[in-house]
Amino acid sequence: MWQVYLSGEIHTDWREQIIRGAEKLNLPVQFSSAVTHHDASDAAGDVLGKETDQFWRDHKSAKVNAILIKTQIEQCDLAIIRFGGKYKQWNAAFDAGYCAALGTPYITLHDEDIIHPLKEVDGSGMAWAQSTDQVVEILHYLTKDQ
Length: 146
Prior knowledge:
This protein is of the alpha/beta class and about 150 residues long. The chain has a domain at about 30-70. The chain has six helices and five strands, in the order E-H-E-H-H-E-H-E-H-E-H. Strands 2-1-3-4-5 form a five-stranded parallel sheet, with helices on both faces.
């Protein structure tokens, strides 16, 4: 069973598209992801005490979220890192760098119009996909004999 971590953009249904595609082909893949509900992610550190300064609220929440993210990246066989066009996904770039440092293969998923700003991220990745269908086809190829 392949463990695939889905990282990045949270404003479209790209994760669900990949999951549905893998299920349709009955691929031996399990998916994990960071918390994708924006408000819940932003509030992850609130349990540690109320903050009046936004920096410290974000700081605590980022650290709590990092427990989940680091664990899932360290346990995955492959990461899919999605960069959308509307927002800058600094967290996704960080996840790609962490994968590269660990030697964990990753595939980037983004449109052609942001190739240049992602050249280093793409350069360390194993593939650049432009659609979720391409990602599913790669997963199919990787798991076809398992």
